[in-house]
């Protein structure tokens, strides 16, 4: 009898999952929680002012701008575009494009003059864009940007010690927990193991703790917390890879032990959308994912809280974090107007507005210290996790890391020897980097700076 | 005429020098940022990849122009001969009439031929040329950097570096196996279903046909994503029913062997309707009197199928099977959407156990920007498929004797 009910509920899961993927495929368009049409500063709970910036930079006559941003950011971008047009009289249009896809498209469209004037991306694509000469440095507002924003954000927006970006928001993942299933979030992985051993019931798909095992990005706490790292010297030295050092091996051994004690599923079967569905229907107590899922879980009616990921091997957990920033195209016809917009849409008022409309976690120090944001339990939990995170490296060599490391996560989870797998992954990364770096002409790299 | 050739000569005089310089050097100054009054300004420079394409266009135009000149010279020669023989040269109007009456087909083909030349052949040449450059991330991505010619170094890397050559041979082996098995299974299943449904005893043929066509009518991407859910080892309905009936769960997508089997099974489900349609349409063209004659001669059902049905089907379908085989070599959708190349293979460079050459190529270009290696693999893939297709097509009867179609 029990089996039968489990089958029933499971086919329901798969149905929901199928429905989810279908909606994803058909790209539902209406996710904005508030109409962004009204004058944002009027209805806001913050005291927002949008004035001309303190600079002698003026937009070129007849300037109009095109901005690329992701779908989630639309409510904010539409509001800030309106304010910018009111203040400067420059028309701004927005085109939806995921932040991960922008540099790839920009590489081809930018030099051809078809791309946006202002683009948004995170630092793991910055090195590629900067070294290919696609974006302009943030020179006009450099001093102000450096002093106003969190240092991690400034570092993330810089490449080769040169500031390029105008930071918008920080992004990382943390642990969502279902308050009805677990009253207090565990502080260590040992507590997670203990809880899971009483809570888990694979026959009815109940699991204590789930995370995206096959993705290195999400499994990084089991490397970074115990002393591993991607590249040395704060992510700038591709010759120093810390993914198979002692700390990484120690963390990965704990990671491998979770397969039996916490999540007895092979890595290839842990799919993100299934995980989301299970958490949304209250079958999973703790779910590691990014802030972009807050809305989904609210709509599912889950009584959830957010906490930092439990300590790994006695150390505070360290995640990978990214900072989204505006970047000004080197091929913009109106670079002054573009720089003004990038600055305008990343200052304190803009970041508070962004928090209010899309829940973005600010990079602006004063905005982050605002009483409303401090009192917001979820945002402050993400902020706490962010302050204990490694910034994703911005050097272009990071592109060679993801594939071998994703594969390594799967291998280790499914029982291969930790050291052997990590050593091989690091060797692959080195091979890829040395292949890519073969005979770089020193003059051509120098010439771009 | 003089005007046109004068224009062409002046055009090529200026463009050709630029084109030859462009394709020989691929530019010598990348775009760079220069500080003017403390502000960075972008100084556009040479974009190696754009230079290569522009040069190719000029060289193609030049080739066309040379062909035109040779034709004009030959025409002038024959006109002179006619004149020497005492005949008057044909007037412009006569030429037009001749063109319209006798060379109409060629006239009509000029436009599509130009299209093929510039939209198909030129890009192919461009992509082949990429294999002989160092166009790859992170140090050789224009416009901030230049791309250089490196000769055969890419191929040397591909075959000499053991990690690359191991991946290449492993992926190639699976690709060949996949193409053969995938084509054979879809064709065999389509043939079997079509033969069964063509029997007189089968009722409600319309309904059966509709049911079989349905998988073909659903967009492939959607059915493949749904399949991916169904075959999930822990949460997918297939394993749930298996364990419900007391059978063990199978690692459909996570074990190398089972994953390969799964993609073949799913591909059979996706591809069977097309083979079914093709075979059914051929069956309806076989003259019924052949079967009657066979019956009179005392042939059994099996003999009828072997002597009449199969040769008819094979004659019409063999070229299509070859096309399907070549298509399966490059069957991107099924692999990418179902397993994305997984489960991962730590011995391989950027590839998994079920990766085909084409999905590996995709990962190299789009995830890792290693364009030159990807281009080299593309060339090898092209040579294999082209050689195989040509050889195989020559073996088929529809190529050897065309009488049967008449």
Automatic annotation (TrEMBL), chain A:
InterPro entries annotated for this entry? Maltose/Cyclodextrin-bd, SBP
Instruction: Supply the Gene3D superfamilies for this chain.
Output: Periplasmic binding protein-like II
Tell me the Pfam families matching this sequence. SBP_bac_8 (PF13416)
Origin, by domain of life?
A: Bacteria
Q: So which residues are the signal peptide here?
A: 1-32
Transmembrane residue ranges: none
- SUPFAM superfamilies in alphabetical order: Periplasmic binding protein-like II
Primary site of residence: membrane
Q: Where in the cell is it found?
A: Cell membrane
Tell me the membrane topology, using the record's own terms.
Lipid-anchor
Q: Which UniProt keywords apply?
A: Cell membrane, Lipoprotein, Membrane, Signal, Sugar transport, Transport
Do the record's keywords include Membrane?
yes
Say which family it is in: Belongs to the bacterial solute-binding protein 1 family.
Name of the protein described by the UniProt record: Maltodextrin-binding protein
Instruction: Identify the species of origin.
Output: Paenibacillus oenotherae
Taxonomic classification, please? Bacteria, Bacillati, Bacillota, Bacilli, Bacillales
